[in-house]
Amino acid sequence: MGRSSDGDTRFLELHGGQWRVTISVPRDLHDRLPTRLKRSLNTDSLAVANRLKWPVIAELKAEIEKARGEGLKARHIRQGLEMAAMLKAARSDEEREAIIDGLYMTGDDLRGPEIGERIDEETGEPVPVYDPSRERVAGEFVRVALGMVTPVDLHHPAYLASLTVKPRTRADDERAMKYLKAWCQSEGVDPSLQAINRKAAVRFMDALPSMREGLTPVTLNKYLRRLSCYWQWLEKRDEVENNVWQGLTLPEPDKKPEERERPFTDEEIVKLLTGKTTQHMHDLMRIGALTGARIDVIVRLKVRDCQEGVFIFQPQKREKAERITPIHSSLVPIIERRSKGKSPDDDLFPEWRPVKKADSQRERSFKASNQFTDYRRAVGVDDKVPGNRRARTNFHSFRRWFVTKAERADQPEHIIAAVIGHKRSGMTLGRYSAGPMVEQARRCVEAVRLPELPEQDGD
User: Fold this and answer.
1) Which helix (H) or strand (E) covers residue 202, if one does?
2) Which sign does the torsion angle of CA 435, 438, 442, 444 carry?
3) Euclidean distance between CA atoms 187 and 64, whole angstroms
4) What is the pLDDT of residues 157-213, one digit of tens each?
5) Alpha carbon 241 to chain centroid distance?
6) What separation in angstroms does the CA of 406 have from each of 68, 437, 446?
7) Superfamily for 266-447?
8) Do the bridges between strand 36-40 and strand 18-24 make them parallel or antiparallel, or are there none, so unpaired?
9) Where are the chain's structural domains?
10) Is the entire prediction scored with pTM above 0.90?
11) Architecture of domain 151-253
């Protein structure tokens, strides 16, 4: 018995009260297309949607098949790149002419035989007609082989290999390129460096919100910045004339003061540091509160990084080198207890082990962060704004609390910046605990005091 259209939702989903077709894109094409292709049917009737959907499904599947034959993996593109390399390496005019002759012969083979003819409107002469798809492939091959076009992602693997960024940032680079290529596909723009000029970049920026529904301008701007970084890399290597993405950002709504993330209050600090949780969570929170350090650098500490009276934190964000922070006197017992019986290369927090998968986008602190969030909520420290994904209070609120307390203790702004790793000029603390800058930093750290806490042991 046939399926009734009254309840058939195959290839359909309801969005904003209207039905639309949705088709999953094979994983091997995710570098060229979104993970799903969607197209609205402009009807709220499921029965009508089922009558309209099949031609749309066929069109979207054809788009998927078309994408399968494109990109760097396509045979004719690989052939074109090989011929372009041979032309570049040619040692004489004769060798170059021979390669060009072979190039056009290959193009003729790719174009295939004539399938008919038409009359040229201007000359009245018959003109051969070729299979349109084969003619397009032949044209792409010739343009690539002659160096007239450069696939937009040709140098992307080399660019990615040059990066020293977190896996999540690398994933942003890959997504940005995927969205750009998908946009080229949908808009009929040649996915080449030559075709992506300033005007095309602006068009892509304007289309990006509709391509990735549900993502905020803040997130979408990350993708625009990653494309800008790629173009900067290309510009330095004379692959493009200029960075067409420079200064392109989507407007981000200003957050009201009551929506911005904030420091913990002293009352919240007391709740957090006296609640019932594990000893390693209590240790983690105290180090966060008395250093202003981010959670990931704390979790990644080795025993060797906590000697001679200072922490040595690995670079984060835009830091270019490890950062030195004096160990607060209140943290000394914690460091001694956690270091006892361990070798210098042992983890200070073995409870949170490194991520096993080499290609994982998760930071080592992923589980620690989730556990802290669950604990924070359990003790009643939560400040959610409707519609915002993140609460106004999170582990970073320890960092804000530390800065607030240091400022209220009249510590110099540039010393606070040095302690927490904010951008500063003309200053470094040095690796060891001797020297005036480290002593100033130590005074800054010691000026921050936890609120009065009752004795509390972790489980």
Assistant:
1) helix 198-211
2) positive
3) 15
4) 999 999 988 888 889 999 999 999 989 988 888 888 999 999 999 999 999 998 877
5) 25
6) 58, 16, 9
7) Intergrase catalytic core (1.10.443.10)
8) antiparallel
9) 12-68, 73-150, 151-253, 266-447
10) no
11) Orthogonal Bundle (1.10)
